[in-house]
Amino acid sequence: MSFFSRRPTGPSASSLISFYEGTGRDHRGRRLSQILQWSADRLESSHDYIQTLFPLPEESGVNWDAPIIDRQVFEAFRSRMELRGRLRDSFQKILWFYGFKLSYENGEVKVGKGDNYDEHSENWDTRFDHNHLRITRIIRCLRVLGFEDEAKAFHKTLEATTMKVSYRSREFWRRAAERALNLRPDLDIYDEDDTTIGPDFLREFEIARQAKLAAAGKRTDPQDGAGSQVVDEREGEKEEKKGLFDDSEDEEAPNEREQSGLQAADERHEVQEWKGFADDENTSGKPDQSGLENLKDNEAVEEVKKDLRRTDNTATAPN
């Protein structure tokens, strides 16, 4: 069974909404207000709360009791300010856990380092860690449920402060922050505006959003060339991303030995959250074939030269 197959809508939607209304509980009987009081140690060691605090449109691969975002949840959070307010509380709590803080300055959303950054950044600022998966989930959840600016601010700050995190983790964060909402981060696709796949309600949302952007672009004065410049830049970005996915060699991709120590035994199940996330190709152990290939190419060239010389000699030989 796919880790990202869709569940039918039903109790999961109402249970998630009631959980964020403050009247419901998660599958372990915990209220949102209780989880928001947890210590950093408990937030780190518990692995079955993050799926409810930051739900996704895809099923969890490890917590089958976790609710998912369906059309009902999507519309509820985007239309009800009190639900988004409690989601912001969850975001602020997890930011504190990672050593950051949320602020709003002159209408702009900012995520900056908190007073506890030096201590709490150890929870995630390392090459491999299960919190990288959580961060991908958080960014995607925020965007889907209406906190686009908060998600982008979080990603921007992560990129500016990250020192040790692997390229693969940072790429998943980028995908969660930038691609169309109907496209999940583990999907390798170079057209990140594709609206032909994914949940219907997110496809509909993206089609409408992209149509508005296109209409706004057409209203741009054609004399200043701004509209065509935007198109050219977007096409250039798509080609660059296509090259990224076509490249099977990744210098920073971890080998199997590194992956085996990625998580402690009690954390391994959470790594399955995003299928394929930790399944990097083992490129570091491959023998270098470039010299052999060059040798073969040179031999082929020499054979062609010999054939040409034989042809020339035949053509010029006296009868």
From TrEMBL:
All copies of the Opioid growth factor receptor (OGFr) conserved domain together span 40-153
The Gene Ontology CC terms held by the record are:
membrane
Per UniProt, what is one Pfam family of this protein? Answer: OGFr_N
Molecular function GO labels: opioid growth factor receptor activity
Compositional bias (Basic and acidic residues)? 231-245, 254-278, 294-312
User: Where are the annotated segments for Disordered?
Assistant: 214-319
Family from the record: Belongs to the opioid growth factor receptor family.
Q: What is this protein called?
A: Opioid growth factor receptor (OGFr) conserved domain-containing protein
Provide the species name: Hyaloscypha bicolor E
